[in-house]
Amino acid sequence: MKMHINFKLITTGLLVSSFYMANAQQKAKPEDTEVWDPIPKVVAPGKSTLDAPSDAIVLFDGKNLNEWVTTEDRNKPAEWTVSGGILTVKKSAGNIETKRSFKNYQLHIEWRIPANISGTGQGRGNSGIFLASIGKGDAGYELQVLDSYNNKTYVNGMAGSIYKQFVPLANPARKPGEWQSYDVMWSAPEFNSDGSLQTPAKVTVLFNGVLVQNNTILKGPTLYIGAPSYQQHGAAPIKLQAHGDPSEPISYRNIWIREL
Ligand code: MG
Fold first, then answer.
1. What H or E segment, with its residue span, contains residue 77?
2. For residues 100 and 156, what is the distance between their CA atoms, to the nearest angstrom?
3. pLDDT tens figures, 83-112
4. What is the pTM of this model?
5. Beta bridge partner(s), residue 107
6. How many C-beta neighbours within 10 Å does residue 242 have?
């Protein structure tokens, strides 16, 4: 008898709740989940995905180094070679970096290992892009540039690696002599007012259109020896490395950035 009453109550309860659920579903409209503002800004894309969109800052357009300075003395103009629309590393002039500082950004940069490259391992076509330059020399977070077409080295030092920290997810390197590209999405680290780390740096990199770093969370600035650790800094220039290896110099072209 008791069982029978409970059964009736449960059945009624189910009927009532399914009625209200059906009613609620009827009231929900597609419009409820539409978002109409703020409207994204209009950006005219480049002719191809390699070309700078309308809101990019062009850092090198093949003509001059007006956007660059010498890292060791930021009052000194950058003294790498500009010829035939390309920029070539001049080892004796040291690293160069942008006049402007950046926080979060999207960067496009193309680079070429000379066809007549010699040397092996890290001594074969070594340069680098410091995604944030935080001082002289090689201080900063290095995205490695190296001939990785047919050149064995430690894998966290290959092209597309975050040097000495993260191995690239693939090796899409082209032959020496061919132009290659990096497209980089960089989220700068954030620090608390007492200097402690709030959010680490994060990077995504496409190498010749192939994903090689996917939301990689950096351990800190690049260190050649030892374990990295963060030190507080703000917006920072982007730096190109004049590596001291004996091989032929690397060239760059078509460098542009979109601040995020
Ligand atoms: Mg390097």
1. strand 73-77
2. 29
3. 999 999 999 999 999 999 999 999 999 999
4. 0.89
5. 184, 257
6. 24
